[in-house]
Write a structure and sequence with these properties.
Layout: H1 2-19, H2 25-33, H3 38-59, H4 67-103, H5 108-134, H6 140-179, H7 188-210, H8 215-232, H9 234-249, E1 257-260, E2 263-270, E3 274-278, E4 284-288, H10 289-294, E5 297-299, E6 306-314, H11 320-335, E7 346-352, E8 357-365, H12 370-390, H13 407-416
Antiparallel strand pairs: 1-2, 1-5, 2-3, 3-4, 6-8, 7-8
Helix pairs in contact: 1-3, 1-6, 2-7, 4-5, 5-6, 6-7, 11-12
């Protein structure tokens, strides 16, 4: 049982380093495989001595009881103490932690403490039971079986605690992602499943390594197989990396109107392999995420405002004063419309066209939404038509005047007369 006690002393440090990224799977297994150093063995021996001293101290109150029998009695006493300790942990310690969590602003601790309550309760029970078995006069074979069972149980509980804690943290991050409408929220269920599988696999590898199984060789073979798989699935992996780029950069989200390369439309779905866009013609375009990651992306939804440029033409019989007056009228009606950014209005007599006197009109719509922007343009255009009519002016349209000259033209004119 000394090995179990040593592992119990060492497990919190290993778990902490694992959680902070200081150990990968291989190095974690190597850390468990490494024999206990002198200080670790001293700690384990001291822990065993404490149990033996506890039994000897307890036996001092009942000297008439046979030593072997009393070891069984001490085993029962330890189990009772463990049950009491479980009650303290679950009913008092975690109850107080939950009350403290309710007073904080963050909701992470509200999820984390309930998630760790079950594993903490089980860890106390497991360590207590095997500590009780340590004081029994067992044979070397049985003691070895108990040690292996204790190692498996303790590692399984620690893996369970890691999974529960990670699940609570990911649930908190998913909640934040949904509140901020981040693209990563779409991938949170997949991230949860992936990390769950990773934690379970690492836990099983650590357990197998602690039992002396040749896990390092298996990992080496798995690494070679993984390399071969990666070479055979380059496109799939490229699409996966492309999806992670979309998550990190979040250039768009579901519902945005975007242009990716030559494809333009509304984003319907962002998956692991591809992104789906619904075009204005209601067709569906499926773009591999590796293409999304490498193409220039134009996000129309994130425009703060939408620019409007248009030109209107007046007939050439308009006088300079009339042109100047109608230009000012258009400026005023644009600045007075709540859907137009007032300081962005530009209206000028721009050029002499082939058939018209052209006024260039430019302004920004406050709301970038396409439908509301089109409603604004309709409203403005109707106001301009009314303003032009009120000034007695007319819109020009393409016209041509043909001058006929020469003998034939004069003859035709004479016949007509």
């Amino acid at each position: 049982m000394i090995r179990l006690l040593y592992f119990t002393m060492k497990a919190p440090r290993l778990l902490g380093v694992w959680l902070t990224g200081g150990l990968g799977a291989t190095s974690l297994l190597a850390a468990v495989e490494t024999p206990a150093p002198a200080t670790g063995g001293k700690v384990a021996a001291e822990a065993t001595d404490i149990l033996e001293q506890f039994v000897a101290w307890l036996h001092g109150f009942f000297p008439g009881i046979d030593g072997t029998l009393f070891h069984w009695i001490a085993c029962g006493v330890i189990i009772v103490l463990v049950i009491l300790l479980r009650h303290v942990v679950t009913k008092i310690v975690f109850h107080q932690l939950k009350k403290l969590a309710a007073k904080t602003e963050t909701t992470l601790d509200d999820k984390l403490f309930p998630a760790l309550e079950g594993p903490a309760d089980m860890l106390v029970l497991v360590l207590g039971i095997f500590a009780a078995l340590t004081v029994l006069p067992l044979s070397a074979k049985v003691d070895r079986l108990v040690t292996n069972a204790a190692t498996i149980s303790a590692l399984a509980v620690l893996t369970w605690a890691l999974i529960r804690a990670g699940g609570a943290v990911l649930a908190h991050l998913e909640e934040i992602a949904h509140e901020k409408q981040m693209t990563v929220a779409t991938f949170m269920p997949l991230i949860k499943k992936t990390l769950f599988v990773v934690a379970v696999v690492l836990g099983l590898l650590v357990i197998a390594q602690s039992l002396g199984w040749p896990v390092m060789g298996l990992l080496g073979a798995a690494g070679i197989g993984g390399l071969a798989f990666a070479l055979a699935a380059q496109d799939t992996i490229a699409n996966l990396f492309g999806s992670f780029v979309v998550v990190v950069d979040h250039p768009f989200r579901v519902g945005d109107v975007v242009k990716i390369g030559t494809a333009e439309g509304r984003v319907e779905d962002i998956g692991l392999r591809s992104t789906k866009i619904r075009t204005a013609a209601r067709t569906l375009i499926v773009i591999p995420n590796k293409t999304v990651a490498s193409e220039a992306i134009t996000n129309f939804t994130r425009m703060p405002q939408r620019r409007v440029d248009q030109t209107i033409g007046l007939t050439y019989d308009a006088t300079p004063d009339q042109v100047q007056t109608i230009a000012e009228d258009i400026r005023q009606l644009l600045r007075g419309d709540p859907g137009v950014q007032a300081d962005s209005v530009l209206v000028h007599f721009a050029e002499y066209g082939d058939c018209s006197l052209n006024l260039h009109i430019m302004y920004f719509a406050v709301d970038p939404d396409w439908a509301r922007h089109m409603d604004l343009r309709e409203r403005i255009n109707l106001k301009i038509m009314r303003a032009v009519a009120a000034r007695g002016l007319e819109f020009a349209f393409p016209t041509q005047t043909v001058l006929l000259d020469g003998p034939v033209a004069r003859q035709l004119a004479g016949n007509k007369g």
